[in-house]
Amino acid sequence: MKRIYTNLIREHFDSNRQMAFVAGPRQVGKTTLSKQLCDRYLNWDNLSDRAVIVRGADAVAGLLDLNTLHSRRIITVFDELHKYSKWKGFIKGFFDIYGDKTNCIITGSARLNIFKRGGDSLMGRYFLYRMHPLSTAEIISADIADSELRLPKAIGDDDWNALLEFGGFPEPYSRRDRRFYNRWRRLRTEQLFTEDVRDLTKVQEISQIQLLADIVRGQSCQLMNYAKLAAAVNVSQDTIKRWILILENLYYAFTIRPWHRNVKKSLLKQPKIFLWDWTLCSEAGSRNENFIASHLLKAVHFWTDYGFGDYALYFVRDKMKREVDFLVTKNDQPWFLVEVKTSDRKISPHLKYFQDQTGAAHAFQVDFERDFVDQDCFTSADPIKVPARTFLSQLV
């Protein structure tokens, strides 16, 4: 299966000397991508590879034969390297010494958060690429567009229905088998909580974090109430906030915060929470809203990582409970609003209200019932209703 990220990493090494950090959830395709591109593959979970890595940069260079002349720079992958407690120091030293002889791809199923900490800083040595599950536009074409938006193109009915039902993780999407999907989802959940939480955090209360994840799954697309979550899990609100961050760092969930600039009496603090796997939402309305949220998050991450600008995803809500589901910003300025509807309804007056408040150039009511329309929805300045298939085909 062709992925847009394959083209992205190839373009990266054609133009840049920096390492490519590829981060994303389990089973999203990072290893498959890396193996398609690399000459040498080292995995921290492989004991023999681990033994070489802990011996340091020179030992790895010897294994890769970097002191021998090659016709081109070889591509080396370090998979799941973030599990090594000293990984930042190791990769900094390796890149500084051997970065002119090999291109490096660093992958991880937890966020590769990089902080400037004295001599351990990786600043300027890498570009981060956030890998997402398959989306409508990527299924249609894995090519990278010349600008953020594509021209609309129809996705096949079978592909669309499979994406909604089985999600965007490549294997269950490709298999399209309910029994396989059920087993795959159960195994992935077990690995997340029995391996990733245990290996990558110091938290001992794994069963309570799993309880929190189950509660969050039932509250996808809703405002987070830390007090109620704390009471349900029987921990403090501060602990809940830390554990939510763990769920975000492990790509189980993501939060979206309210946009408040230029919005009268706006909501300021409470974020909404969504799931990386929208198929975990049991209710159709929540699943569809999470489906759109995931597509929008993928788009703003890709556009930012590729260098089109700085993009972010918010929602808009005021104290009068007027709300629009999503707002996408470009270079810190409102760009377009999105309201999600499962059925074809009268256009929400809140779209026009918040478009006037924010100055967003476009406002869409995205409808799941309407068929694809071959028309660029971004040519309209006024709030319009648009089929989900059309709108999503123009993103990433």
The helix/strand series, from N terminus to C terminus, equals HEHEHHEHEEHHHHHHHEEHEEEHEEH
- β-strand percent reads 15-25%
Number of discrete domains: 2
Total beta strands? 12
- Report the end-to-end length measured between terminal Cα atoms: 16 Å
Strand order, sheet with most strands: 7-6-8-9-10-11-12
Shape: globular
Unreliable spans: 114-120
Provide the gyration radius in Å. Answer: 22 Å
- The residue-averaged pLDDT reads 93
Write structural notes for this entry:
By secondary structure, this protein is α/β, with parallel strands linked by helices. The protein folds into two domains: 4-130, P-loop containing nucleotide triphosphate hydrolases (Rossmann fold, 3-Layer(aba) Sandwich), CATH 3.40.50; 136-393, no CATH class. Helix content is 42%, strand content 18%. The protein is built from 15 helices and twelve strands. It has helices at residues 4-15, 30-37, 47-54, 57-64, 87-98, 136-140, 157-166, 170-175, 178-200, 206-218, 226-233, 237-249, 284-306, 349-358, 388-393, and strands spanning 19-23, 40-43, 74-79, 102-108, 126-130, 253-258, 272-275, 311-317, 323-330, 333-341, 362-367, 384-387. The strands form two sheets. A seven-stranded mixed beta sheet has the order 7-6-8-9-10-11-12, sandwiched between helices. It has a five-stranded parallel beta sheet with strand order 2-3-4-1-5, sandwiched between helices. Helix 4 (57-64) crosses helix 5 (87-98), helix 9 (178-200) crosses helix 10 and helix 11 (226-233) crosses helix 12. Residues 114-120 have low confidence and may be disordered.
